[in-house]
Design a protein that fits this description.
single chain; 372 residues; alpha+beta; Lysozyme-like; six-stranded antiparallel sheet; 21% helix
Length: 372
Amino acid sequence: MSRRGALGAAGAVAAAAAVTPLAAAVSGDEPAGEENSGSERKERAFPATRAKLADDATRPVSADFPITYVGLGWRGPHRGAQIRFTLPDGRKSDWQRVTAGCAGGREGSAGGAVTALAAAPDATGYELRLPDGVTEVRAMALDTVHGPRRTTKVPAERKRMRGLTYLTRADWGADESLRFLPDGTENTPTAFYPAQVMTVHHTATVNDDPDPAATVRAVYEQHAVANDWGDIGYHFLIDEAGRIYEGRWSGEDALPAHDSDGKLVTAFHTAGYNSGNLGVALLGDFVEREPTAEARASLVALLAVYAAYQGLDPRADVTFVNPVDGVTKDTALLSGHQDWLTTECPGGVLHRDLPALREDVAAAAGRMQKRS
């Protein structure tokens, strides 16, 4: 039996053992069980993402498509940025606060850049107000909802990992061409290292999201293209309904986010501390608001799956050693993004829940290990 097959067999009880209410949120009407082994696929159409990079983001910007998101990046103060939109009828929206997102980046990068993803109401344009001290402003208008349809092959049945169903990259409409440079080579080739720690994030995007898959596609476009990382920065994302989305590309022959030897693919979620660090992001903004019960239940179950698989103790304190450059950091094994870098991520409310989250993940992982 393959490593992936053995993992599925060992953890078939995960959904029920970890969090009983998770079945409806993650699995829908499908029974919990082993990972799907079938390779049947069906065609599905997704909107192609349209993007326009601003020549000068300090001046009003317009686009020839309905803007559903604006991806931003700058250096300087994290707070104080504002945005307003030109609405389809020509009116201007009110100015609204821009919430800074994750301080991610490639391995070995210094970090420090501020990024944000602002939802737009099918706008025709936008303009920014930026605080003093802001430099290197980048802005990209995005439409991940209304573009021309492109057809791709998706799994005929929902994929599973240790009893948890998840949306593959194909299921949420990832355009795999974004991972490649014009000459056909991967922008950031995959690299794999033993798992050491797990980090929780939020995307700092809208709550009560009407189209979370479109938001995932926007995050992907911003990370892969605007930030030039070559892929989405997280290993997994979770929406408010508890649906789990596969993130960083790791190949098709192993557990998502891993190679066939069980090593973790390097992503871009915690600049300077990526390799060996599993990054899971909840869609939404949790500075002042709690995640939904469904999202938290899926987060517990997903982290428990990986803790059990890798033999990690979510309650432990460890010394993380970056296998790429030898940089070390003393940290909780299960931590929040702000425990690594200067950022509000994963939001104050979610960060304060980490002690309870560690206990819940440890309990669920322990049950999995006993039954495997």
